[in-house]
Design goal:
115 residues, mainly beta, four-stranded antiparallel beta sheet, 10 strands, 48% strand, globular
């Protein structure tokens, strides 16, 4: 059984920063392409950023230049560094494989950007 645990969310003012972490257990983490997804109320879940096992990254246009995805295979962890946050970034953030989901969704971590 694979477990994904997201953390690091919170309330932040516009223009602020947060770093999210996703810890995986129960699998050989390094072989998977991993991504961060988000879902805002009333909206579809969308891919925000992805990173291959070899470190190749991809970003949604809406976050390009502001967010950075990275991974530490030794720690079975993928990170999302978020800067210059906007109210539109408010959502529950999840991690999973990409471009298709292969694991069950975790609880996610709430990011709220508000003044």
């Amino acid at each position: 059984q694979v477990q994904l645990v997201e953390s690091g969310g919170g309330l932040v003012q516009p223009g602020g920063s947060l770093r999210l972490s996703c810890a995986a257990s129960g699998t050989i983490f390094s072989i998977y392409n991993m991504g961060w997804y988000r879902q805002a109320p009333g909206k579809q879940r969308e891919l925000v950023a992805g990173i291959s096992g070899g470190g190749t990254t991809t970003y949604a246009d809406s976050v390009k230049g502001r967010f950075t995805i990275s991974r530490d295979n030794a720690k079975n962890t993928v990170y999302l560094q978020m800067k210059s946050l906007k109210p539109e970034d408010t959502a529950v953030y999840f991690c999973n494989t990409y471009p298709i989901r292969q694991f069950y969704w975790g609880q996610g971590t709430q990011v709220t950007v508000s003044s």
